[in-house]
Amino acid sequence: MIDTHIHITDKQYNEDRDEVLTTAKNEGVETFMAIGCDKQEITNTLAFIKSHPEFYAAIGYHPIEFESVTDDDLRTLHEQLQEDNVVAIGEIGLDYHWYPDNKEEQEVLLRKQLDIAKALNLPIVIHAREALDDTYNVLKDYPGLMGTIHSFSGNGEEALKFIELGFVVGLTGPITFKNGDNQKDVAKKVPLDKLLIETDGPYLTPVPHRGKRNRPEYIYYVAQEIANQKGINVEEVLEVTTSNFKRVFLGE
Ligand code: NI
Predict the structure, then answer these.
(1) Closest C-alpha among 214, 197, 196 to residue 206
(2) pTM exceeds cut of 0.85
(3) What is the 47 CA–ligand 1 centroid distance (Å)?
């Protein structure tokens, strides 16, 4: 299994990070993509992956960072993106849940980072919260870019629009929630070769551990629910989503 989205340097893992990773490996998670999406997390993530060869990284500025990110920071990001095992830019995007009044500033930051992705020919990890339509309209302006719409929150029809643009969509813990109808619909309608599984750890913990801190091996519950929705077995979900990650982010 590959946990394709984990904030491994988050302080919630500070007490027992080694134990978390050892357990995850024993449970079959052999590869990870760490996310660094503010200045401190980017620095920490780049340092962390140097001593953890089982980790790839995606780095970039989250939309809620729109006030603090300077053009100098973006020049630095451009350099950082060329370090070993950094395979994507993200999570970048639009977040109208936390910042409904700063749509334009967020879009400016997003477009600047999409330009970097294009220049470096890197895949992207998109964060879109209560902003799917505007995200779609921005991405439409960048044909040829690919990547994932992380922790996709829309329904199956909405997901298929992003698939048409060349993206895959990531499913997380909420697919296991009682109110996870949209995510279940995505699992049903989107072809398996366009899906990724991710924890977004330490957040979005699936049932039956909901309410606790997330752990990489819990992606199994996400895979299990995708399998239920598609009426296939979980091994097939794990196998295909693993090769999806390798295709999109490692070019394999
Ligand atoms: Ni995240």
Answers:
(1) 214
(2) yes
(3) 18
